[in-house]
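Dear support,

We are seeing what looks like truncated structure output for some complexes. This example has two components. We would appreciate it if you could run it in full and send us the complete token output so we can diff it against ours.
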Amino acid sequence: DAGITQSPRYKITETGRQVTLMCHQTWSHSYMFWYRQDLGHGLRLIYYSAAADITDKGEVPDGYVVSRSKTENFPLTLESATRSQTSVYFCASSGVLGADHNSPLHFGNGTRLTVT
Amino acid sequence: AQSVTQLDSQVPVFEEAPVELRCNYSSSVSVYLFWYVQYPNQGLQLLLKYLSGSTLVKGINGFEAEFNKSQTSFHLRKPSVHISDTAEYFCAVTGGVLSGTYKYIFGTGTRLKVLA
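Here is the complete output from our reference environment:
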């Protein structure tokens, strides 16, 4: 089935460790996004990508690294996890959006990350 | 830069009563507007979207929203709510690829609590 898959669903890690959150989509969407969701802040954009090998910083990129070697994958890496990065992380993808196109944002089910 | 403001963090309402969730946006370019709904422990689902054309848009589950360019608003309404509408609702804006601002910016969310 077409869709967007995030793994793992839950992750507990220790401060200072590196952790990678995976995101895979089967729609061949050009655009992919990483958000974090925190109480009182809604969804904040971490990084986004327009195509393979093209990535840009969002609102809160510090402490995160992304790569996009293939269109369908967009992993998010926390190089040295901190407690402030405890959050729910959502990956999303989108096709071209305009008056003649109809491909809004589609979300994965999220990864709940706890940093101890 | 684009931004979204959802003025109400929580909205309690009795079952079968009408509800309006407010959303105001700021953008220097033409925008596309969205409402997403998030049920507990789930990802976000598209409720409705405004791309162009009629300013009154209808979505799933009986929701509708009206785009008001002069007031830069995109308020969500439902004439009669059900207990099952209890969820968090997010307003989002993007300029779309044609404007070169394809990232989606979300508001902080409004928790709708429907009371029996």
